[in-house]
């Protein structure tokens, strides 16, 4: 039920490749030389649960490449050469709760309008520069979203409004210098927000204030360009901690100490 062909010289797979493996649950094709996924490549693997395609040279994925993978729960496409998010292909994976596309060259995310099955989505270390309200509108069940190490420069109004169940949002090491007051509107259950390693010069007071979650316990602002912290930050969200380490702060010792101790929370 498990087949590992990782770290070989496989360059071509097709519909015929996996015929006869109908009971397969785990398939690892990582670290090969696969450059494309053709139509119906995995159509015989109806019972497959985990598919690893990491560290290949995949740049194109047919819209029907994953047709037939009705039970797939985990898909790892990290470390490839994808420039566009394969939205249409992934729509055919109704059980894919974990989708990993880290370390690609993705610049266009398209619109996740029929992707309610996703729970964990990782698109860190890509070339994403633009996200909007439409981008995540279909990810209504998402709990964890990682957009770290991209080229995002601003968070516009209602960008994450569809993600009412999201618990963790990672936006570290981007180029964010502007956050709309309503950027986090809709994040009713958010617990953790990481904005470290960006270009923020001001604390986004209204954006944090209008974030609707009463479960938010930690917001990371490490290594930005923030010099002033509002004096009423301690009453803004009494149950929320903030980490401002690595910023050029000029504020009261009380606030600095609060920022310095948050990492141990």
Automatic annotation (TrEMBL):
Top-level taxon of the source organism: Eukaryota
Pfam families linked: LRR_8
Coiled coil stretches, renumbered: none
Keywords, sorted A to Z: Leucine-rich repeat, Repeat
PROSITE patterns documented for this protein: LRR (PS51450)
Keyword Chaperone recorded: no
InterPro entries (UniProt xref): Leu-rich_rpt (IPR001611), Leu-rich_rpt_typical-subtyp (IPR003591), LRR_dom_sf (IPR032675)
Name under which the protein is recorded: LRRNT domain-containing protein
